[in-house]
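Final report, Chapter 2: Outcomes

The project's central promise was a pipeline that accepts a single protein chain and returns its three-dimensional structure in a standardized token representation, suitable for archiving and comparison. That pipeline is now operational. To close this chapter, we reproduce one record exactly as it appears in the project archive, with the input sequence first and the structure output second.
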Amino acid sequence: MRKHSFAMIILAFAFSYFCFSCSKDTPKQQYVKNNNTPTQVINDAYLLRSVDGVVDTELKAKKIEIYNFADSSKMIFPQGLNVNFLNPDKTIKANLSSLYAESLSDNLYYLRDSVVIINYKDMDTFYCQDLYWRKDSAIVRTDLPVRRHSEGGIDYAKGLRARDDFDSVEVKSPYGMQKVKEE
């Protein structure tokens, strides 16, 4: 009998401890979302863009970090971006590359750090510090100095505006020695 009463006392004490030791007033754990942490990471990305069923752009990146915010999302290409603009027969028309890029909106990309544009049709290569690429209007542009290497030599300009297929290129405020090819 003594064993049972002792066990009942211990059981009553344990029951009261578990029931009354926890309070309903304890604050819930706060989860703080760190905006410096990507919600998705894509390694060795290979993306294709098509218009009316025809592939016109090939995008390659070693790493894409995607950040989701309350009202928008952002993609960052911390190890660079390589974009090939394709002809209808899938040959490369032009190449755009940089060591860093990010999407400022759904249709606007900002590329910086060793931006290189190669126009295979005219055999021109453009070098600049940064570049904006607007996908919806198919325009690339920069207002910073541009160096152009072509078969005529090296040209300089204070900016560039072109269609992303490089059928139309406008060099802003060219300077220095330039050779013009007569037709």
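Archive annotation: The longest helix spans residues 2-20.
This record, like all others produced under the grant, will remain available to the consortium after the project formally closes.
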